[in-house]
Amino acid sequence: MTTQSPFHPGERAVQARVGVRDQAEQLGQRMIRDFMPDEHREFYANLPYLLVGSVDDSGQPWASMLFGRPGFVSSPDAKSLEVAAKPTFGDPLADNLLADARLGFLGIDYATRRRNRLSGRVRDVQGTGFTVDVEQAFGNCPRFIQKRVVEVTDRVDQAGAALPVTDMNSLNERAREIIAAADHFFIATDYSADDGDRSQGADVSHRGGKPGFVRIDSDSWLTFPDFRGNNHYNTLGNLELNPRAGLLFPDFDTGDLLYVAARAEITWNGKSVDNFHGAKQLVHFDIESVRLVAGAMPVNFRFEAYSPFLKKTGDWEAAA
Q1: pLDDT at 93 over 80
Q2: Residue 141 burial (CB < 10 Å; 0-12/13-18/19+)?
Q3: Which residues are bridge partners to 281 per DSSP?
């Protein structure tokens, strides 16, 4: 056990707010390491995709998805992660992938519902990819991950090929369609005080629920119920200190990727939260910009089953 907390001030504040501060600290001291265990290194090496959280030069976080044949992510040692892939066309990560940038990573295996998290600093960027020095690594629970079978297509070898890109200031009909059907999305957040604390930096996380769990209140306002996970509160801890967020909605039927830049507001308690069974908070997003990249995913995902944990959650119709 280390003497330095693995959580930054925002994470600790949220843990205290919801009454899990001591429990989270004890768990974090055991789980959160400054290196990757061998099983994590093997896990990442078997994935054909990798989620990445980055921050652009304006401070806006973005959630991204990299693709490659299994083995495109490797780990020469427990403190290093090598990624042999370029961002797909239109991905904001292309401009954010710079030496010394702090990135967050999420490896998620839809077939087994297993996921692991990692954060680190970019050591160098090469023509075919980049290398990261690991700062934090830990596992996540399988809750709310829907089971899918994954198949890599030959398009994975042409990740930089041009694709149709639509930029918007708010949601259009196609964007609303993707969000309304989503049974999960990814959220990137960031808190950086530039004091060398390894608990800071960009983060990317998974949020799942029944299709429609992200409510479209208007073309510029979304709300979703945030269900309890591992009590780390990495995402909400970042939002406590920096409300900017980047959302990524994958459409597995078409391969489209929908990127959303927003500012978050959190409803911590009250009737609106209590009426939604299973939610601990409601998170609202004030949308600032939207990007839709058509056919961006060179990997096919076939749905198999919803997470059994969804039975314990409510829905907006019941909440109303």
Answers
A1: yes
A2: middle
A3: 226
Q: For position 195, what pLDDT does the model report?
A: 64
CA-to-CA distance for 144 and 210, rounded, in angstroms?
A: 9
The span from the CA of 111 to the CA of 242, in Å, is 34
Please give the class, per CATH, of domain 9-319.
mainly beta
In a 3-state reduction of DSSP, which class is residue 183?
Answer: coil
The whole-number average pLDDT for the span 144-157 is 96
Inform me whether the pLDDT recorded for 77 exceeds 60: yes
Token pair 């939604």 in the structure block, residue: 276
Residue ranges covered by each domain of the chain: 9-319
Beta carbons of 20 and 13 less than 8 angstroms apart: no
Buried b / exposed e over 189-228, threshold 16 CB at 10 Å, is bbbbeeeebbbbbbbbbbbbbbeebbbbeebebbbbbbbe
What is the rounded distance in angstroms from the CA atom of residue 97 to the CA atom of residue 44?
A: 19
Handedness of CA 191, 30, 111, 177 (dihedral sign): negative
How many CA within 13 A on the CB side of residue 84? 14
Report whether 256 contacts 293 (CB < 8 A): yes
Does 124 have pLDDT greater than 70? yes
Cα angle 82, 41, 75; round to 5: 25
pLDDT tens track for 22-43: 999 999 999 999 999 999 999 9
Would you say residue 2 has pLDDT above 60? no
Strands (E), 91-146: 102-109, 114-126, 129-140
> Residue-wise over 17-48: b if at least 16 C-beta within 10 A, else e?
bbebbeebbebbeeebbeebeeebbebbeebb
